[in-house]
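User: structure tokens for this one?
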Amino acid sequence: MGFRTGNGWAGFRGSAVLAAVLLGSTGCSDDATGLKVPAFPVRGKVTFEGQPAAGAFVVFHPKTAVKPGEEVLKPRATVKPDGEFTLSTASDGDGAPAGEYDVTVQWTKPVKQGADLVAGPNVIPKAYAEPATTPLHVTVRDSDNALEPFAITKK
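Assistant:
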């Protein structure tokens, strides 16, 4: 037993204390997702011209600036056939950290190209594709979040 030789239990206790200090100082996340900040459930719905935007891609862009070297977390989701979505940041359906976000939506409906289906052009108005121009802004609270539907039109 390598750690019990020499100083016996005193050496073992010292090693255990050192391990605990190292784990505490490395910034280990406190949940299974690996996020260093808590994420909260976020659900919503996207329609375009009154129809569910099945397959549209939704991204939440944080409005707060990050520190140099810090990872920018962009929660995202793919809209389901009924128009609903559930955000994910580090794992499926884990939600988003609390804060304010600009929301972008893109929907590239598949088009037939020969015998293949390929991604077609984005059918959502261009303003919704960029954080600087999107009219969609939300606040994620530190609780369960059921957002108002994003009812997108051509105008």
